[in-house]
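[SOLVED] Need 3D model of a two-part complex

Original post:
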Amino acid sequence: MRDDARYPPDPWGLAEQGISLDRLAQSESLFALANGHVGLRGNLDEGEPVGTSGTYLNGFYESYPLQYGERGYGFAEDGQVVVNVPDGKIIRLQVEDEPLDIHRGTLEHHERRLDFRSGVLERELRWRTASGHAVEVRTRRLVSLSLRSVAAIEYEVTALDRKVRIALQSNLQVNRARPGEGDDPRAARHLDEVLRSHLSVSENKRVVLGHTTHVSELAVASGMDHRVECDSELESLTQAEPDLGRVTMSAELQPGETMRLVKFVSYHWSSQQSVEWLRDQVDASLESALAEGFDGLLEEQREILGRYWERADIEVDGDDELQQAVRFAMFHIFQSAARNEGRAIPAKGLTGTGYDGHAFWDTESFVLPVLTFTAPDTVRHALAWRHSTLDAARARAEQLHLRGAAFPWRTIRGEECSGYWPAGTAAFHVNADIADAVRRYVMVTGDDDFEERFGCELLVETARLWESLGHHDDYGAFRIDGVTGPDEYSALVDNNVYTNLMAQRNLESAYHCTGRHPSVARRLGVDDDERERWRAAAEAMFIPFDEQAGVHPQDDSFLHHQPWDFASTPDENYPLLLHYPYFQLYRQQVIKQADLVLAMHVRGDAFTLEQKRANFDYYEPLCVRDSSLSAATQAVVAAEVGHLDLAKDYLYEASHMDIADLERNTGDGLHMASLAGAVIATVSGFGGLRDHGGRLEFRPRLPEGLERLRFGLQLRATLLRVEVTQDEATYRVERGGGVHLDHWDERVDLTAQHAATLPIPPAPDLPAPSQPPGREPGRRRPRQPIEYVPLEAQPVDDRA
Amino acid sequence: MRDDARYPPDPWGLAEQGISLDRLAQSESLFALANGHVGLRGNLDEGEPVGTSGTYLNGFYESYPLQYGERGYGFAEDGQVVVNVPDGKIIRLQVEDEPLDIHRGTLEHHERRLDFRSGVLERELRWRTASGHAVEVRTRRLVSLSLRSVAAIEYEVTALDRKVRIALQSNLQVNRARPGEGDDPRAARHLDEVLRSHLSVSENKRVVLGHTTHVSELAVASGMDHRVECDSELESLTQAEPDLGRVTMSAELQPGETMRLVKFVSYHWSSQQSVEWLRDQVDASLESALAEGFDGLLEEQREILGRYWERADIEVDGDDELQQAVRFAMFHIFQSAARNEGRAIPAKGLTGTGYDGHAFWDTESFVLPVLTFTAPDTVRHALAWRHSTLDAARARAEQLHLRGAAFPWRTIRGEECSGYWPAGTAAFHVNADIADAVRRYVMVTGDDDFEERFGCELLVETARLWESLGHHDDYGAFRIDGVTGPDEYSALVDNNVYTNLMAQRNLESAYHCTGRHPSVARRLGVDDDERERWRAAAEAMFIPFDEQAGVHPQDDSFLHHQPWDFASTPDENYPLLLHYPYFQLYRQQVIKQADLVLAMHVRGDAFTLEQKRANFDYYEPLCVRDSSLSAATQAVVAAEVGHLDLAKDYLYEASHMDIADLERNTGDGLHMASLAGAVIATVSGFGGLRDHGGRLEFRPRLPEGLERLRFGLQLRATLLRVEVTQDEATYRVERGGGVHLDHWDERVDLTAQHAATLPIPPAPDLPAPSQPPGREPGRRRPRQPIEYVPLEAQPVDDRA
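Solution:
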């Protein structure tokens, strides 16, 4: 049983019955809609009550100077924060002069459901005013996957037992940021009064606003238009103010009569175009949207998502919660990226302002691996975005006295925005993570054009960085000193195994890529001597191993440190970073998130199975998972080494990070990488997929309780379907040509329309490793149940 | 020849002939007067032109919130910055309605001289107005060593060839901070409008002002009163405004006639007393000052300084510049501490706002060792101040999840104010440095009362810190991981040798002290078990040594790192911290300041002579001396291992840090620790003094060019005079009882009035180690000569 029963299992959707005011922010994130360009949080149509009101455009940000108690050379100078653009979601209803507000009157029914196949957020409510007039409201909201700038809302209100006069107000309004800022460094910075009005025009039921940001000097135009269907006579008014567009409509509805409003919203922004031109684009987009109508947009939505699910769907038999959670993950990953053309995929997608809307390494390390096999076009776009920031990355490398490109730890536009360099700039592995995403994308898609135009340069500039970051020591070994690996509870260490292994692959990839594309290599000034240095550095890469302990140290000094005193660490002191200084975390054996274990997943080719087992057993009792980026990786490696039950528990945690709000910050936005991690834990954990060399390997094995796992992989023109049961796995080419793969070290050459069914070796019987006390995976950890209080039970607040 | 000839050699003073507007700020620091409570920068009497106007009260500060790009648990929350209190130095002269301003008219003569025996800053100038009226002005300024709150200025103006009407204005005024703040983290933060007026009263020629600070809520009263001698009739006016007191006097002087004004200023501040009470104190102090008169104060000044010089004077025969520089150092060290009762000795003394007026570890490590042998009362006060901040240090330790007390890296009032923890809080050695100052003070003075009341608790609480900071590893060794040593170009390292050796001594000192004082131990809750743990930790302290390289690594990983590429580092990239990121500095072999070499000085008992030689040779080519805390220590160890010429060059650099403005930031205040370092380099370098065990050791040896070195040491009631020549050393008890010492491993037991003359072994002939290119010691480095432009040669600026 899920400990939070608010979202009952539902194979193709997420439904909330009733509404909990305490958890509004979480539900706004879960019900967020996006298409990679526009993102709307799942705010109530009437705008209030609200956790965080959010309407975001990918890449639209404001910047502000970063302050330091003590400044140092090369510290990031400016922060960038995603901007809340004019909110076009708002539709307010007044019934017999009483505003529909779930605080008032009686909310007799309330239900929302996000449908994964149509991408629509549906809402149904029945409300009775204090004076006893009842209405039923049904709304459907979508962010179009076909018209990139467009969102649409269908709002139907029906009079129930009595005749009622209703007024609908549809707004497009600038929401002011809320004051105050907490101490949690993971939350967003609030900037006040970011948007300056430049334009406000209306025509019939259309209003278009134009704004610019103060410091980043970006322009945005936002517009709305409406279609109304109502049998009764309609009185209406359209207003346009600098920060507000509003269309008010009033009608009298007979019992059973329905008024239907369809609202179309469009957003265009630019760093170069004038507000006037952007306004033209908004007007054009609104015209196209009106032509499609809500139903037309919905039909395209179903088609696009249908094609995605055909490739990407993951079927999990035997665990309804997991089935739902994995599809929830696949849905959000797709909509965060579908139309991201030329933009990043931020850590929270477009679902909230957590981490200021920045993109980190987790996009390349978690999100892109999933999309590479299911929606490869979005990966091309995401990596082309990285490529578009190369100048900033090269400038950053130069500033740091390094060569090549140093990509930022966190950014919106490409500049380093990390205000704490030991856990930011020093985490150079982001560069190898980007390179590995390039390698994987090219390997899986065979996209030569991408490799020539973007990929090769990304590999070359990151390889140059690594060559300048490391050095050959007196014994010839290539060391990389003073960097920070994925585990943020260590910093500035020598020879972090993950970093060194990823750098090694980065150097090898650049070597091979420039070998494949000599003309690109020439264009980039790469000569044989440089290639040879990359090869030599990769070959000599130092990977520390402690013979005595029989494990890989996370870095040179890790094993010498004092083990963390878990026995004296009370539950309320997690996450540790909010209760202990970095000083203490860095100098002791305690791990925030999979680091060496992540290396064993993505660079599994560098470890023997015995090493993986010993390492996993060693690091498991040290890892507190204070990061959402850990459980999925632990699931993958647990599954590989044979701890299948543990893997399942970690998969549960990764997949329920947001649905169960395990870290209590889903309100700031969804954890895209954890969602992707849930998919990875399924496909690479129980599906056993690896992509180390030139061919795919599978070592599938299901835990008890899962009967069947079925997933698809798009490999160039081929759609490969993999079906795993307890005893055997079937590989089938559903579309396209043949494919070569390994199944448990057995070579399998599948031809078109061919299938192969192969046995799965039984799991070994291993003693399960332990976790730090109280840090067992989510399902195992006893947890306070979250009380769902239906709104009707709450006292009515008669605020004016 | 000194490369800057502005301050000609002068055995008992520092004189400036002419005035350089470019270097006003430097001269203001050099000519600063203080007594440990009040500090006046050497600003011109007329207040302008000015580098930085400064009037400081020890401990009087304002606080402000420290900002961070990304905040973390335990980051220092508030900064503290020394406040510029109302400026009572200002006396303005108007001659025939034309203001004496060195920009205007013709400055025919200008000379200032700081006298080390009287503690008086003298000024003499002859000025002719544009209309041709000439006056001679002679001023003398002192900050009283007897009346702690009082400063006095004698201002004499004499009409020369013609009769002139003059007006003198004596101000007490709040100076507004200048806007703007550079990128150099070593400079001070500027806060605007810190002082709020509470009180402003006048009576005859007396004005008293009362102010409070906004955030730190401190109160200060400042007052001035005047005595005038003039044969002519005097017109005068006294004004009192919230931020200004002013007395204006006008008289007509016949040729040759002199008007003499004596101005007395007094400051009292408190965190608890009311402004009104402080005003009473100021009025009382002014009354006392009036009773003493300028000459009375001057006489006491000479007496107090005479007693100091009798104990503390250092005679250096054979190098006039060095003689002057060492006395300059001894003078400033004394006046920074003389009346510091209950307060810290900041890094800049009270001579400027550099480092925000904070005190660091260098007080205990450099300044106090000098004062311990020459003015031990001030050391008692300085350590009692540390003791008074124990509650803050204990709270800090608790916040950091440590035991005992964690003293701040930088502070005014006791709270941690470091805005960059890897080079602040992580530099825990400050605690052992404090403990070592306690140990030395008690050893040298035998002050049992101090030990019982303050010293023992300081040792105990710091020992507790170390016990909680380190741990016994699997082999039993006691490791201290993740801390920062003195070298700020490394950070967060394991087993920094300096730190571990100092912690070892700290633990031993606490063990012995609690053994000597069982009742104090009981009061502090120390039992045998705890003492035994300290002893065991000290005994098992891990001191890394690299057998292969034959040297001590600065820390566990130092020798594995890449050597800095000095060949590719242009001169203009020094200091490195302003041109390279910490990231690069930390991960390579490059040293900002003596670290392992400092360990070899203060813990010389832990190294063999051969190790010292090998270590010195290894680290010397890596040390860039981007800190003023390095040259002196390098001088000491160079002298010990036998590089006498090099030691002399380092001594020259340490002693001329400010006189020659070697780091170009003397304008922010004097480098007190470098001044103290110059004394240490003399006494411990060429005098060979060490104080490791229970008795003093001397291994004196002079470099070529020095004929004789003579210095005194106050040891309990005994005044020991040491005289060193090229061939022999003479130890003489000048006052008090006998003393035991070692001379080059020979035990010497001196009795009262007894002297012993012993031979000095010849210096070995060693190849000199090299420094990084361009980083040779000051005297060896070619340097742009600083042009002294006499003011008369400058164009007259007729600004209104």
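Edit: Chain B touches chain A through 51 residues (CB under 8 Å).
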